[in-house]
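User: structure tokens for this one?
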Amino acid sequence: MKKITTTLLLTFIGLFVFAQTNADLVGQWYNAKDDIVLTLFEVNETISAKITWMKFPNDENGNPKTDLLNPDESLRNRSIIGALMMYDLTYIAGNIWDNGSLYIPKTGKIYSGMMRLKNEKTLNIRGYVGFSFFERYSSTWTRYLDEDLVSNPTTKKRNLLIQLTEDLNKIINKIENENLLIQLREDLNEIIKKIEELKKAE
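Assistant:
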């Protein structure tokens, strides 16, 4: 009995020491191939994630890639960039988030979603059916850290391009919804500054 009590106590202490919060996940994460960025954010105490950057955002015809395989036909014309890939993941205990959904645009499949924060820089994403051991998808993602901008020129250029893509998307939205030429000129000037900074990083 004493041994069981000690084991339970150590387990409880372990959960307490390594307990995480949603804030530990919020931010940008790169996939294993460094060709997609997911931005994780909090929604009503759960975690969601959307695709905010792609190394190859256009198809062979030069058009933005759309969600062609989405099981919901009404969403097949939406851009992949900006699409939700994970949603409703809830913190369970220790370093685990579960009970959410994971959408894989490449296949159009939707699975139950789970995330495990291995350390502050590494996140494992899993998709499963029914029970977590019936795994259908697994990927390890790496956090973008601010110090990378200083220590790694390649990462600096990549992050500048991510920001540049987001800025261009904002401008496109303004062109579609408003006729604000003055604001557009200011936004374009900001992008030109970022391009100049990119050149200096070469």
